[in-house]
Specification:
There is one protein chain. By secondary structure, the chain is mostly helical. The chain has one domain. It is about 95% helix and about 0% strand. The chain contains two helices and no strands. Helix 1 (about 5-55) runs antiparallel to helix 2. The protein starts with a helix and ends with a helix.
């Protein structure tokens, strides 16, 4: 026999878990957006500083050295940022999947046992 109080309790627990998960996912997206915005701002500032330094270069050799240093540091910052962002997206994926871990494990265990 179905117990309505128990069904209501389970439904409320599921809804609370879902809302909590949605909140965590929204925070994750907000963190990623903030990080991307900060990286863009820093990149723009770096390009502005580079262009200012480049315009003050007195020789081709100095300009070439400035450009080489800028490109190297820009590439290193990009790789570091890409690594950081990929970790953030991986963590977000884990957060999204978290509510489904137990049901999937239970279903997988049931299908294996059957």
């Amino acid at each position: 026999m179905i117990n309505l109080d128990e069904a209501n309790k389970k439904g409320k627990e599921a809804m609370d878990a879902m809302l909590k998960n949605y909140s965590e996912v929204a925070k994750g997206f907000q963190t990623i957006a903030t990080e991307a915005s900060e990286y863009s701002k820093k990149s723009f500032e770096d390009v502005s500083a580079f262009m200012e330094a480049l315009s003050g270069a007195k020789s081709i050799e100095t300009a070439f050295e400035l450009q080489s240093n800028f490109m190297k540091s820009s590439y290193e910052r990009f790789v570091a940022e890409a690594t950081k962002m990929s970790e953030m997206y991986a963590d977000l994926g884990k957060t999204v999947y978290k509510p489904y871990e137990a049901p999937v494990a239970k279903a997988t265990g049931m299908s294996t046992a059957a």
